Amino acid sequence: MARTGGAVPPSAARSRNMAAVKRSNTKPEVDLRRRLHAAGYRFRKDFPIRLEGRLIRPDIAFTRRHIAVFVDGCFWHSCPAHGSMPATNQHFWQEKLEGNVARDREQDRLLGRAGWTVIRIWEHEPLDEGVNAVAATLIGRAGGKPS
Ligand SMILES: [Zn+2]
Prior knowledge:
The protein is an alpha+beta fold. The chain is built from 4 helices and 6 strands; from the N terminus they run ααβββββαβα. The strands form 2 sheets. A 4-stranded mixed sheet has the order 1-4-5-6, with helices on both faces. β2 (49-51) and β3 (54-56) form a beta hairpin. α2 (27-38) packs across α4. The longest helix has 24 residues, at 90-113. It binds zinc ion. Residues 74, 79, 81-82, 122, 124 line the site of zinc ion.
């Protein structure tokens, strides 16, 4: 089963630069899309959703059924199992990582209020579990038919 190490923080020298970039198309994300696509599901990638002045781009969006899927990196989103605080630039990192988590919860709230179902999958989770979580939600919202 494919697993990623995932939680290694970048060097201090690159940290600010990297932190400014939205990370997308990470391997777990790409793998999940590939598996869902192969299973016959059709979805949008990085679909822009504007809610209350915020722009939210789920990694995977089922627009008709209003299901938003995020694959959260263990380091960037402070996974309870693998999240870590770099030893250097601690003030910067604390603000950055806490900000990420706060933004995640804000996005969850906005999406939920607008009728979206939000699925968050940690990058460390086995691919099968992510696929199953999405499939189960789709079935729950649509009476059992994929696509
Ligand atoms: Zn993790």
